[in-house]
Design a protein that fits this description.
The chain is of the alpha+beta class and 126 residues long. The protein contains three helices and eight strands. The structure holds zinc ion (ZN). The site of zinc ion (ZN) has 8 residues, from helix 2.
């Protein structure tokens, strides 16, 4: 149990540090909001163009996440993780929110950012 908790904390830390990195980077850039990056354990696995409907499975040593891209949005539609928070998050668009699957170390986050979401950035930072 203690080991499990430690893994969760470690994964959360990795995700948080990545998120901070992404926020800093996105402040200066004006990237296409219609794409997202998918990371596992902080490593970029693939970039997804949300203008193309797609379904695929991300598999890692932790388990699997089924990803669905539809109508410019992306969601985790299936997973064997505990809690299934990633599935419950539902669909996000390329410039709105992110999906995290902590047990799997999976993070789906927008490639770019725009000024509309600056308030959200502040909320994350503090
Ligand atoms: Zn999950």
């Amino acid at each position: 149990m203690a080991k499990y908790k430690k893994d969760i904390i470690l994964t959360a830390l990795i995700l948080l540090s990545f998120l901070a990195f992404w926020l800093i980077r996105s402040n200066g850039s004006k990237a296409d909001p219609k794409s997202v990056n998918i990371y596992v354990d902080g490593v970029l696995l693939r970039a997804v163009d949300l203008s193309v409907d797609d379904e695929f499975r991300i598999e890692s040593k932790h388990g699997y996440n089924d990803i669905t891209v539809k109508d410019g949005k992306i969601a985790v539609t299936g997973s064997d993780c505990d809690g299934k928070d990633c599935v419950k998050t539902g669909y996000i668009s390329g410039n709105n929110g992110y999906i995290a699957c902590l047990p799997h170390g999976l993070l789906i986050s927008p490639k770019g950012d725009d000024s509309d979401s600056k308030g959200g950035v502040d909320a994350f930072a503090y």
